[in-house]
Amino acid sequence: MNGGCIVVEQSVGLQGEVALEGAKNAVLVIMASSVLASGVTILTNVPALADVFQMKQLLEQLGAVITFDQATKTMEINTTTLNDCVVSPELMRKMRASILVAGPLLARFGRARVALPGGCLLGARPIDLHLRAFARMGVAIEVVGEYLHMNAHPLCAQTFVLEYPSVGATENMMMAAVLTQGVTRIINAAVEPEVLDLIAILRKMGARIEIEVPGTLVIEGVSVLSAVEYEIIPDRLEAGTLLIAAAVTNGHISIPDCPHTVMDVFLERLTEMGHEITLHSANKGVTLKATDVPRAVSFRTGPYPGFPTDLQAPMMVAQCLALGTSVIYETVFENRLVHTRELQKMGAQIVQDGSLIATVKGVDCLYGASVIAPDIRASAALVIAGLAAQGQTIMTGIHHFRRGYTRLEDKLCALGARIKVQE
Ligand code: EPZ
Questions:
Q1: Catalytic (active-site) positions
Q2: What domains does the chain contain, in order, with CATH numbers?
């Protein structure tokens, strides 16, 4: 699982047109939401990611019967056969999204037996906000060995203020609330595009959810939800990763299904660097023509619509090769700058101030090196760095790359990149 490596040669001038896959951080929670309805949920535009197969395995452990046709990117999830509420610690540890079955299980069956989730090592990543929200809704939570035993007697509608607009806690509480009698309010909720995609399918299933400003979800519980067919939104994070790959190789690429309306802050930073960004239409499609004298820009990550933390690592690579100095402030995860040391191996001039701030001084070039991917988004950043670097870069830890991207190396090669994967 954790073997293999990616070999990247310097690749100048990526160019051409590239399509996006469905969004990882939408499809995982939407798969979990299928537990809320008894029937056959049909999902289209499903990306063939390692995490999607993990979530498929997790739902099958609960008794769901699932087929996934990778050729048509269509998944059918039959939850009429759901017969359990216990998820093994081994499966829970595989990824953070595992915890997102808790809310649906509590809503449908009134109980859940889950272990603490795994996922990228970006910091402590506690689930206290999830558990406090459940407890507020009347869930009794007991730690039994590696398991959290959760029992609702029954769930009760509540108003809950999230101290931090946690994506996962918002999603979990919302899914617990859609079948809970009464009106639940989630104040200071996350409103990332992937959260809005979850709201869209829940509404299609029959849920009553309103969004009030600023960031309050009002959920009026209903008695039953129906299984539906739904198309997953395109992945804005894959789009950003591809655009940065073109930017650092002095390339020129088009992404016709790029959801630019949810990427404003990120696209503005690329424009400030001097790259030419052209929007195809009012709601989707982007072309980037790189400048050969990029200027360094500073940015801080934050909850949507701020700069996405999941594009911080790739964007750091772009700053390593820009004119001037960039200050990068990671505010979402307390340990999400670990890729700095790998980029320093390639000649990047980066000084870290604690674990939240990195100051990047642009250099004329990076040099290929042997590097280790510490997490999903860092793995993409290191591949991008390898495309720009002189010489050859060998990256291990490709299981992270497989968790977050569907054969991204094939897409990059089709644009002119020189990448070989040795699984
Ligand atoms: C989701 O993670 C995404 N994962 C992450 O993408 C993304 O980076 C993150 O949202 C922020 O946008 C999925 O959707 C599967 P959070 P999540 O709860 O829900 C703290 C990727 O690479 N926190 O918004 O785990 C937490 O530690 C991944 O695709 C608590 O303290 O993010 C973090 O510092 C990485 N207690 C901050 O909040 C809690 O109970 C944001 O976490 C929950 C979160």
A1: 120
A2: 5-20+234-422 (3.65.10.10), 24-226 (3.65.10.10)
Cβ burial of 95 (10 Å; 0-12, 13-18, 19+) is: buried
- Give the integer Cα–Cα distance in Å for 373 and 386: 12
**pLDDT (tens digit, 9 = 90+) per residue, 162-210?**
999 999 999 999 999 999 999 999 999 999 999 999 999 999 999 999 9
Residues 6+ apart with CB under 8 A from 410: none
Contact status, residue 147 vs residue 115, Cβ threshold 8 Å:
yes
Nearest to 38 by CA among 227, 211, 277, 219: 227
Tens-digit pLDDT profile for residues 67-105: 999 999 999 999 999 988 888 888 888 888 889 999 999
Residue of the CA atom closest to atom 38 of ligand 1:
166
- Angle CA 196–32–48, to nearest 5: 90
pLDDT in tens, 41-62: 999 999 999 999 999 999 999 9
User: Which of these, 329, 304, 332, lies nearest to 319 by C-alpha position?
Assistant: 329
CA–CA gap between residue 289 and residue 345 (Å, rounded): 29
Question: Which residue's CA is minimally distant from atom 24 of ligand 1?
Answer: 166
Preceding amide of 308 cis, omega within 30:
no
Mean pLDDT of 4-27: 97
The pTM of the whole model exceeds 0.70: yes
Query: How far is the first Cα of the chain from the last one, in angstroms, to the nearest whole number?
Result: 9
Nearest atom (ligand 1) to Cα of 125: 27
User: Residue 420: CA atoms inside 13 Å, Cβ hemisphere, count?
Assistant: 6
